[in-house]
Design a protein that fits this description.
Elements: E1 5-7, H1 8-15, H2 19-28, H3 32-36, E2 43-45, H4 46-56, E3 66-70, H5 79-92, E4 97-101, H6 107-111, H7 123-128, E5 138-139, E6 145-148, H8 157-161, H9 170-176, E7 184-188, H10 195-203, E8 206-212, H11 216-234, E9 241-247, H12 254-266, H13 281-288, H14 292-295, H15 300-316, H16 319-324
Parallel strand pairs: 3-7, 3-8, 4-6, 4-7, 8-9
Antiparallel strand pairs: 1-2, 5-6
Helix pairs in contact: 5-15, 9-10
Length: 336
């Protein structure tokens, strides 16, 4: 992650400036110190980005930690690539973000440049042994983006949770210790249902469900909505929002267009208008251990993730208004 570099044009764009405004700020404005430290600079680092935000006062307002879970019971939907790129972009925009890798394969950790298999502690220690999360969190190298890593140690966590008291609420309680430190917690879950994912659902404000535009996705969606409905009835936990995100979409495929139309018909309330188009840059970025925004910010994948983020932020709205909004009623499973 430390190897990420920004061109002057991209650096200005991320800060919300024009190249001319960036040049002026470096010449005689608040970024003059940044320029004087390296007068021949042509590329900028992620540390430069954090320093420039602070100097310009362009940090977004802090908000109560929003816990956002990426989950689909069906595998192969590109969930981890989407969740880590989404989290990276939030941090790039100046938010304080914690990514929690719930999958024993540690793919989210890898996508953020962290070798999860080398981590001495994972979420297992927090939920089972009650080690404070602050002792488990690692830095990714991107200022404002931290990680709770995962490895094969996590593969036995469901069995370890089974005999424990209040086993469904352990993750929610653990997050309370650090909620003042972050604006967002992005949880990347494995494609299965067990006590760990139950913990994740009980901790989440928002549920993101990446799906492929094929009809196999409908079965997984039906099971997921049935599960969410049972949680609302049995454990009285109502998610604020459910966002269905169509991933790897190729509009030239007839089956993809038909599947999207079916999703629009059966899941209108939850389906995001923004789709994420099929993009080989996602796989290339993951192999480099960096999110799509760091690999190719001009790619259609990066532009689509930005579109998803913008639409989600519009739906979530102002954090103050959220506190005043009435809780939604239970959601019933949709028959597809």
């Amino acid at each position: 992650m430390e190897s990420i570099r920004y061109s002057a044009r991209r650096f200005a764009q991320v800060l919300g400036l024009t190249p001319q405004e960036l040049s002026e700020a470096e010449a005689r404005g608040p970024l003059a110190k940044l320029r004087s430290s390296s007068p021949q600079r042509t590329l900028y680092t992620i540390e430069d980005l954090a320093s420039a935000r602070a100097a310009l006062g362009r940090c977004p307002p802090r908000r109560p930690m929003r816990r956002q879970l990426f989950l689909n019971f069906k595998g192969g939907t590109g969930k981890t690539s989407v969740s880590t790129s989404y989290a990276f972009r939030l941090a790039e925009m100046g938010h304080r973000v914690l990514v929690i890798d719930l999958d024993s394969q540690g793919h989210a950790s890898k996508c953020l440049g962290i070798a999860g298999e080398e981590a001495e502690r994972t979420l297992f220690e927090a939920l089972i042994k009650k080690v404070p999360l602050e002792q488990i969190i690692v830095k990714t190298g991107m200022p404002g983006l931290d990680l709770v890593p995962s490895n094969l140690r996590m593969s036995t966590i469901d069995l370890s949770l089974m005999p424990l008291a209040a086993r469904e609420f352990r993750l929610r309680n653990a997050l309370k210790e650090i909620e003042a430190e972050y604006d967002y917690a992005v949880l990347d879950a494995p494609p299965s249902f067990g006590l760990l994912n139950l913990n994740a659902l009980m901790a989440a404000h928002d549920l993101f469900v990446p799906v492929l535009a094929d009809f196999l996705s409908f079965h997984g969606l039906k099971l997921l909505f049935e599960t969410v409905h049972s949680l609302e009835e049995d454990l009285e936990h109502v998610l604020d929002h459910i966002f269905i995100v169509v991933n790897a979409y190729n509009a030239t495929f007839r089956i993809a267009k038909e599947a999207r139309e079916a999703l629009e018909k059966h899941y209108t309330e939850f389906l995001l208008k923004q789709v994420i188009r099929q993009c080989t840059k996602f796989a290339q970025a993951s192999s480099e251990g960096i999110p799509i925004f760091a690999y190719d910010p001009e790619s259609k994948g990066a532009r689509d993730i930005q579109g998803v983020l913008d639409e989600v932020r519009e739906r979530i709205g102002d954090p103050v208004k959220l506190k005043l909004a009435p809780a939604a009623g239970p959601r019933k499973a949709v028959e597809a």
